[in-house]
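Structure ticket #2291
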Amino acid sequence: DDQTSYALAFLHDLIPAEHQQAAKDYFKATIARADGRIGTGFIGTPALLPALVKIGEPELAAAVFLQEKVPGWLYQVKNGATTIWERWDAIKEDGSIFDPAMNSYNHYAYGAVCQWLFEAVAGFRPDPDRPGFKHIVLEPVIIAELAPVKAHYRSASGPVSVEWSLNGDRVSYDASVPSGATATLILSARYQDAAADGTPIQPGADGVSRHELAAGRHEITFRIRRP
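Resolution: structure written out below.
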């Protein structure tokens, strides 16, 4: 009954359908017990935020990411970090240093959150069925507190770049697909009134909007659905 167990189980589709709602409730309860802080280690950290998004809790994922106490990523930022540390409190609030024998200041384990920043917040990832960014999945998770967002990646197929800004509930999302590649835009049901290059995108029966994009630069707009 901990964050890592639920995150891995949801991310890898290990929970039977009849138990998913209960597991979601227990998963959220593990975060509430931790006062909204991350409670994973090296194995669970890469899965935590993607799993929360997958179960339909992007706001909770954002809250965990943005909280500024230990353990948390923004605690490090507030204390001058430009890379992500091996220990959450490698430099303590009073400025003292944790034991140098185990205190890397540039470490992948908690730094795995950067993959989520690219794939969810910036919103682009490679299609595993067409590797090398021959086909790109564009599926942004809009976190208002981080606006505006800009990211780029030099892929094997060429440069991929996206940027988005927020004006009220309206999102402007620009994406550049490299020559010779294609992309699929996927917008969850929490987004509405979507258009790509001026052409409206109609949501499917599940409320999700999908649209195929050729190589080149595309201007996409949509609105965040309010509860």
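Closing remark: The first helix runs from residue 3 to 11.
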